[in-house]
Amino acid sequence: MNMTTAQLATIKAAINGDPTAAAFENGDSGNQALATYLNTVPASPTMVWRPVVSAAEMAAVIDWSAFAALTVAKQNTYFALQSGPVDATSVNIRNGFNTVFGAGATLTALTALAQRGASRFEAMFTTSNVCSVFGQSISAWEVGSARNS
Is the torsion defined by CA of 40, 7, 123, 57 positive or negative? Predict the structure, then answer.
């Protein structure tokens, strides 16, 4: 991944602001260990919205008896929302599911499905639970570049 100057500055500031991260030696082995640390999801992670949630995943968590009780208009709205993979980073999509299911077990299950814990690296680039580097990791070389920038 080609890091911008701004991204390197963000990484450097995050490393310096985390006593555990800052304690890793700034050298080949230390930067490799730090990259591993940054690419790990911590015990209490920042939750991020997934940019791709498949229709099959959604179907697996729906309370189908509650779905059957919905109005035809709400059922049709659901089918329109999940006609392909869903981008849960979209507020409009999340609002659509809220409109269809309201409060209840299905909305809770869909919300849980549409999120996952961010790695420490991903959390550096997360705003309003949307990660601009979702699914990417940082290399030892990039860690060194950030530390030495």
Answer: negative
